[in-house]
Amino acid sequence: MEEVNHTSVSQFLLTGLSDDPKLQPVLFALFLSMYLVTVLGNLLIILAVSSDSHLHTPMYFFLSNLSLVDICFISTTVPKMLVNIQAQSKDISYIECCTQVYFLIIFIGMDNFLLSVMAFDRFVAICHPLNYTVIMSPRLCALLVLMSWLIMFWVSLIHILLLKRLNFSIGTEIPHFFCELTQFLSVASSDTHVNYIVMYVLSALLGVIPMTGILFSYSQIVSSLLKMSSIVNTYKAFSTCGSHLCVVSLFYGTAFGVYLSSAVAHASPRYLITSVMYSVVTPMLNPFIYSLRNKDVKGALRSFLGRAAFGL
């Protein structure tokens, strides 16, 4: 096909999860349900934390930010997919595609940073309890979150600026249900070596550094727990990390699955399934993990829902 500059390409085609017309209503109902559950679950976490003064601590401040990021993360992809299914269309404009790529990079990176910061918070709480309030001051917590946002805004902007130099062919199909950076690069009809180099370098830095921080924090936590003489105190200390460990395992497990499946084939069914797990299921499960395993969150949710019901 003829190569044209991106300014002449007004739209792409998203192949979606299936071309079977009989599956479209099922997919619409399934993803609409998961989207609503995700938004409602994470919104309840934010409202419960903000309404309960006992939860105005660094750990729950970071949890609220994680819930906000998860809402934004799933809202970047699923609504467009639902619109396309309902309209029986596969079109997505060039601007919409770039916008999805831009915000997906930001929110994935924010998930990564917040999980690392939450691990650091648990490390300070368990290993340095006497200095916890001094170290994890409100100013430091706000600064950590703000710096994470600024870093991801600039990293994502770099990728978008590099995308603008690429050429695409008319009628280009993206073998996915949303625009992902690797998918975007794979369908370009011009040289993408610079894009891939920048992507791998930045991904390595932004992936390895937070993961190293998580591993270091938990190595120190385990070391401190082994030194505790009281089994009750050990269990209590470790229980505060349980929810975070589950979320970390889910996030990095699905991310690793996406990476392995993409190494085989970007358009393979396995890749699409792991992408659904990574981009839709993980944000949906996070509020359940924290609410089911955390007595403080469950108590705050019951109190908030009780006040809401009484108010109605």
Could you state the order of secondary-structure elements as H and E?
EEHHHEHHHEEHHHHH
Structural class: mainly alpha
CATH fold group: Rhopdopsin 7-helix transmembrane proteins
CATH level 4 superfamily:
Rhodopsin 7-helix transmembrane proteins
How big is the Rg? 21 Å
- In quaternary terms, these chains amount to single chain
The tally of strands reads: 5
| Annotation field: number of helices | 11
Please give the largest β-sheet: 3 strands, mixed
- Tell me, rounded to a whole number, the average pLDDT: 84
Cα separation of the termini: 61 Å
- How much of the sequence lies in strands comes to under 5%
CATH class term: Mainly Alpha
Strand order of the largest sheet: 3-2-5
Parts with pLDDT < 50 across at least 5 consecutive residues: 1-7
Shape: globular
- Fraction of residues in H or I helices: over 70%
Q: How many separate structural domains?
A: 1
CATH architecture: Up-down Bundle
How would you describe this protein?
There is one protein chain. The chain has 312 residues and is mainly alpha-helical. It has one domain (11-311): Rhopdopsin 7-helix transmembrane proteins, CATH 1.20.1070.10. Helix content is 76%, strand content 5%. It has helices at residues 24-51, 58-75, 78-87, 94-127, 132-135, 138-163, 181-186, 193-227, 231-264, 269-293, 295-311, and strands at 3-5, 11-14, 91-93, 167-169, 173-174. The strands form two sheets. A three-stranded mixed sheet has the order 3-2-5. Strands 1-4 form a two-stranded antiparallel ribbon. Helix 2 (58-75) packs antiparallel against helix 4, helix 4 runs parallel beside helix 8 and helix 10 (269-293) packs across helix 11. The longest helix has 35 residues, at 193-227. The protein is globular. The model is unreliable at 1-7 (pLDDT under 50).
